[in-house]
């Protein structure tokens, strides 16, 4: 499981970082930490387009987005 | 048929929002705004800059209430949906100059990406050259993003910081109301030219607030649309942008703006036509329409958002977007004080050097501000 903390980065940097993380770790579960609603939507959309399962949990002011690759 | 519906379903709101914005953008001209300029963030910020006396171009001075509505509409919407977060500190000074150069670029073309869409839907084919330049600038920006370009993290900050820009907008609204009702000596309002063409205050502010709501909820961004296609193959925002052009085009035909005598504003007959000649508030120097929008597109991408989206973000508490907007104002003042802006007769005396200076600045920022890991 790999954590990617994109708190404080504004659009589109979080998406670039997650895309890179997905490319470098194709079979790993990723946990994305963000505080922004826009990032939550964008990252979810990107992950779903790649067949990932998306699970979102609220943790205080932040969101933890769990991205599980297809077939895991 | 079902597969078509499945394709459009997740995009329903962004498409409906785009259509609504397109319809309003077209109609604002019939309600009094300049031709193909129902809303233009760059032009309207430039008009506000002039109204405050920061430049002396007498034909483009007016406190545009639409702009006030964008920011305050986003503020109210963000508060209602619990998305208001005061934040800042991501390279503010770089953002200031990106804003200034973005404004300089848009005023060479005579319109921000929002007006570009309105010009397309109003038959002005010079917008096609501008669009090509915009997409080229965005592509260069995407190249930098893929290399790891970033302006760095912003941090949470005191609520007061996030309220500064909304308070400035409220101040401008007070100026606008007093200017309309009593006439204020300290605020300038054009007596002729585009600055003298405006919709009634109440109409402008209500439409502005509605647009603030639409753009806050749908996250529409006129440069993000093309960036996302190149960066992540996502057509989500682009479908909203296409909907804007369709909304403008269909509205212009329905209300008769393409017909002789169909659109009379302040006693002046504006007839939209398909072509490069006789377009309202536009010129047809193709090279500089292209290069001006290339500069603007690159500057917007490096700053992360188009000018309208920056107003939305500033309403959501993003102080860095606020600094970008102050940069737009400075850029508008430079543009007219230093003869950088175009007019319907063509580019300004010093346009060439300013555009190259802006491109040099943006390329330097793009190459150097790179985060590893």
Give your account of this protein's structure.
The complex is a heterodimer of chains A (72) and B (373). Chain A is an alpha+beta fold. Chain A has a single domain, classed as TusA-like domain (Translation Initiation Factor IF3), CATH 3.30.110.40. Helix content of chain A is 35%, strand content 32%. Chain A has two helices and four strands. Chain A has helices at 13-24, 37-49, and strands spanning 2-5, 30-34, 53-59, 62-68. Chain A has a four-stranded mixed β-sheet, with helices on one face. In chain A, a hairpin with a 2-residue loop joins strand 3 (53-59) and strand 4 (62-68). By secondary structure, chain B is mostly helical. Chain B has one domain. In chain B, 62% of the residues lie in helices and 2% in strands. Chain B is built from 15 helices and four strands. Chain B has a two-stranded antiparallel sheet. In chain B, helix 2 runs parallel beside helix 11 (236-254), helix 4 (65-80) packs antiparallel against helix 8 (159-181) and helix 7 runs parallel beside helix 12 (286-303). Chain B is globular, with a radius of gyration of 19 Å. Chain B starts with a helix and ends in a 5-residue tail after the last helix. Chain A binds chain B through residues 7-13, 15-16, 19, 35-38, 41, 45-46, 49, and chain B through 10, 81, 83, 85, 87, 90, 145-146, 148, 150-156, 219, 221, 224, 227-228, 231-234, 236, 304-305, 313, 318, 320.
């Amino acid at each position: 499981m790999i954590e990617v903390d994109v708190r404080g980065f504004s659009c589109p940097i979080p998406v670039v970082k997650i895309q890179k993380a997905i490319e470098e770790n194709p079979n790993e579960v990723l946990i994305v930490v963000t505080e922004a609603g826009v990032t939550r939507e964008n990252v979810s959309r990107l992950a779903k387009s790649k067949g990932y399962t998306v699970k979102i949990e609220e943790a205080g002011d932040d969101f933890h987005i769990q991205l599980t690759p297809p077939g895991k | 048929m079902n597969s078509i519906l499945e394709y459009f379903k997740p995009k329903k709101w962004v498409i409906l929002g785009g259509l609504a914005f397109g319809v309003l953008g077209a109609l604002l001209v019939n309600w009094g705004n300049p031709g193909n300029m129902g809303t233009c963030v760059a032009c309207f910020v430039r008009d506000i800059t002039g109204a405050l006396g920061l430049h002396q171009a007498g034909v483009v001075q007016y406190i545009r209430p639409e702009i006030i509505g964008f920011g305050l509409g986003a503020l109210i919407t963000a508060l209602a949906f619990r998305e208001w977060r005061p934040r800042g500190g991501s390279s503010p000074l770089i953002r200031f100059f990106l804003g200034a150069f973005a404004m300089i670029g848009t005023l060479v073309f005579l319109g921000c990406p929002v007006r570009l869409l309105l010009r397309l839907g109003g038959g002005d084919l010079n917008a096609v050259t501008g669009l090509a330049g915009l997409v080229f600038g965005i592509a260069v920006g995407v190249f930098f993003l893929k290399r790891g370009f970033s302006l760095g993290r912003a941090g949470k900050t005191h609520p007061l910081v996030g309220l500064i820009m909304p308070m400035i907008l409220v101040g401008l609204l007070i100026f606008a109301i007093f200017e309309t009702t009593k006439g204020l000596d300290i605020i300038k309002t054009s007596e002729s030219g585009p600055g003298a063409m405006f919709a009634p205050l109440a109409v402008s502010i209500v439409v502005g607030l509605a647009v603030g709501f639409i753009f806050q909820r749908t996250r529409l961004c006129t440069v993000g649309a093309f960036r996302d296609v190149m960066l992540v193959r996502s057509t989500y925002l682009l479908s909203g942008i296409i909907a804007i052009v369709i909304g403008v085009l269909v509205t212009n035909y329905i209300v008769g703006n393409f017909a002789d005598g169909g659109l009379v504003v302040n006693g002046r007959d504006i007839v939209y036509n398909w072509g490069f000649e006789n377009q309202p508030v536009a010129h047809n120097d193709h090279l500089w329409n292209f290069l001006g929008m290339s500069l603007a597109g690159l500057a917007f991408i490096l700053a992360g958002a188009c000018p309208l989206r920056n107003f939305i973000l500033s309403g959501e508490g993003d102080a860095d977007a606020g600094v970008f907007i102050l940069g737009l104002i400075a850029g508008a003042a430079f543009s007219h004080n230093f003869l950088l802006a175009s007019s319907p007769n063509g580019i300004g005396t010093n346009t060439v050097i300013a555009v190259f200076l802006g491109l040099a600045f943006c390329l330097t920022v793009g190459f150097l501000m790179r985060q590893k890991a």
